[in-house]
Design a protein that fits this description.
0% strand
């Protein structure tokens, strides 16, 4: 729908507006599946904006609507989204509970399209627990599933996540190899927001290696790809990293300008 178009263009606020309109129409028509799908998209969009309360509220309404309609595939999809959000705010055990509920439901539904997100979610949860080997195992499973489905965005997301795991382990060459693969994928898909995130992660690797010149270059390239009006939080993160490098380099006034 139009909401998806605006979401892929990184205009998340406009996407939410359109998803809400769609949800109202489905509700008037009494179509629980349509309503559940729109609510799931609303939850995902709010999650992208880090509005956790609204994201959870939309996801819970989506889950209730899927259950009322008897659509197990939709229920699995929303459980996966809720699992990721729980992991993202640090409630990892609840995240795993949701993923295993989704996995149990998928034993009967056998929906291959949802295996990539499900394996990615499990990997992310295990990564937050510090169980990096399990995380890498499930990310590889996720990548294989996305590749089989021809889902290039999913492939890029997994490569980015694998890069983050390797970076946390201090395996910077492996991290950069996966980041660069993700970067190429997102550039081919013309996803500016995702490109900016990968560029910042690459900058962080060089930062940790002490190669501040390269780090600054990637941080600034990341800023160039970030929409300050739509993503002020991401701009703030990147400016903070730049400020820290300038401070370590003795350029205190320039550093203050970035904080």
């Amino acid at each position: 729908g139009l909401g998806d178009v605006y979401y892929t263009r990184d205009d998340v606020a406009k996407a939410i507006e359109l998803y809400n309109r769609a949800e109202e129409i489905w509700r008037r028509l009494g179509d629980q599946r349509g309503q559940a799908k729109s609510l799931k998209y609303i939850g995902f969009a709010y999650s992208t904006l880090r509005d956790i309360g609204k994201a959870f509220a939309a996801y819970q309404q989506s889950l209730t609507a899927w259950q009322a309609s008897g659509d197990k595939v939709g229920e699995i999809d929303t459980l996966i989204a809720m699992g990721f959000l729980n992991a993202n705010i640090g409630d990892t055990q609840e995240s795993l509970n949701l993923y295993f509920r989704a996995m149990d439901l998928n034993k009967s539904s056998r929906c291959r399209d949802l295996e990539g997100p499900l394996f990615s979610g499990l990997a992310y949860a295990y990564s937050t627990l510090g169980e990096k080997d399990k995380a890498l195992f499930y990310y590889q499973q996720a990548f294989a599933s996305y590749h089989e489905q021809g889902d290039h965005w999913g492939e890029g997301a997994v490569k980015l996540s694998i890069g983050m795991v390797y970076s946390s382990l201090g395996k910077y060459d492996d991290a950069l190899a996966n980041y660069n693969a993700a970067l190429a994928t997102y550039q081919a898909l013309d996803r500016a927001r995702s490109v900016s995130l990968v560029l910042r992660e690459i900058g962080l690797v060089y930062d940790m290696r002490g190669d501040y010149r390269s780090a600054l270059d990637y941080y600034r390239r990341s800023l160039d790809k970030t929409n300050a009006e739509k993503d002020p939080g991401e701009v703030a993160y990147t400016l903070d990293y730049i400020g820290r490098i300038l401070e370590r380099s003795g350029e205190h006034q320039k550093a203050l300008d970035h904080y």
